[in-house]
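Q: Give me a backbone?
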Amino acid sequence: MTLNPLRVVVADDQRVVREGLAMLIGLLDGIEVVATAVDGLDAVEQALLHRPDVVVMDLRMPALDGAQATARIRSELPHTQVLVLTTYADDDALFPALRAGARGYLTKDASAEEIEQALSALARGQTHLAAQIQQRLVDVTLDANAAPKEAASIAGLPDGLSPREAEVLALIAAGLSNTDIARELVLSNATIKTHVNHIFAKIGARDRAQAVHYAYDRGIT
C-alpha cells in the first residue's frame, strides 16, 4: 500500500460501465477513485475540482467527447495524466486522443491487472499503450516512410476514405470476412467492425455487396 494513494477520476457516459470501473479501480491496492463523471464536460469539471493524478477517460461521450476533454484537462492540469479506456481502437479514435495529450490507451477488454499497470505507469510519467495500439503506431511510422508515389495514391482516395479504410475495403472486395480481415491486419474484430461501419457510411453502401461493387468500380482491389 502506498502512503499517498493514486487519485483517479473515472469518466464514462454509461452508468453501468462507470460504476463498474469505479468499483474495480477502487479495489486496486494504493488507488483511490475520488470522483466519477458522466460525460466529457463533467470530466473536465471533476478534474479541476479534485486535481487527480489520472483521469480514466471514455472517448465517445455527449456534451464533450473524450479527446476534447483530454485536451482541456492537459491544458489546465499538466500534472494530471489521461488514460483512455474505450471500446474503439480505430484511427479516428486513437490519433485525436493521443494528439490531445492522452498517455495511456486501453480497450475495454483490458484486465484489472492491465488497468492497474497502466495507471501506475502514467503516475510515474510513463506511457502505457495496449499491444494493438503499439502495433498501429508502428504501422503509421512505416506508412510515413512510404514512397512518394504511394503517398500520392493515398491522397487520391475517394469519398474521404482513409488509407486503412481503403485497405479494409479492398479485403472486403476480396471476399474476406471481418474475422479474416482482423487476422490479416493484426487488429481486433471490434476495430474492423468500426472501420466497416465508417466505410459504409462514407461510400453510401447498405451492405457488403454494394461495398464490393463500389470497390471494383473505383479500382480499390
User: Anything to note?
Assistant: The longest strand covers residues 31-37. Residues 189-203 form the longest helix (15 residues). The chain has two domains: 6-135, 146-217. The chain has a mean pLDDT of 88.
